[in-house]
Amino acid sequence: MIYRVRKLLVWFGKLFPFVLCFIVCVSYIETLVSIGFDLYCSYGEYVVPYKPLSWFFGDILTYDWHTISVAIVLSIAFETCIWNKLSILYLCANLYEKQCFVDEMEWYTIVLICATNIAVSYYLIYKGIRALCMK
């Protein structure tokens, strides 16, 4: 029983950054869809894209520097692959990017940022899951 729990913990530690990348990818896809179909909602005095899946994930897991710190510790502790570490590096860059873009932007700038982040996160998810399945 203890061996199974340990094995599950290691598997979770190796998969965790890719789960975070998946959540980030879903959030950017929802942003593109909401911009494409003009789906917005008001949040206080702001108008934000309508992203119900991201809000659902946000109720379960907060994506912040503490979560990234947990992913870094797990990545170091379990001696994970390069794709795991690159995913964590991307997630750090993504959080920094979110802190930099606080002003209103044109829709085409948002679409370009979303498309770039979707491509990067999808690539990291693909390579990371493939590396985990090959072992």
Describe the structure.
The protein has a two-stranded antiparallel sheet. It is built from five helices and two strands; from the N terminus they run αββαααα. The mean pLDDT is 91. It has helices at 2-36, 52-60, 65-77, 82-100, 107-134; strands spanning 40-43, 46-49. The chain has one domain (2-134). By secondary structure, it is mainly alpha-helical. Helix 1 (2-36) packs antiparallel against helix 2, helix 3 packs antiparallel against helix 4 and helix 4 packs antiparallel against helix 5 (107-134).
Report the biggest beta sheet as strand number plus sense, adding barrel if it closes.
Answer: 2 strands, antiparallel
Q: Helical percent range?
A: over 70%
The CA-CA distance between the termini, in Å, is 22 Å
Total strands: 2
Integer-rounded radius of gyration = 16 Å
- The helix/strand order is HEEHHHH
- The tally of structural domains comes to 1
What share of residues are in beta strands?
5-15%
Overall shape: it is elongated
Indicate the mean pLDDT.
91
Low-confidence stretches: none
**How are the strands of the largest sheet arranged?**
1-2
Number of helices: 5
Structural class: mainly alpha
List the helices and strands and how they pair.
Layout: H1 2-36, E1 40-43, E2 46-49, H2 52-60, H3 65-77, H4 82-100, H5 107-134
Antiparallel strand pairs: 1-2
Features:
135 residues, mainly alpha, two-stranded antiparallel ribbon, 5 helices, 77% helix, elongated
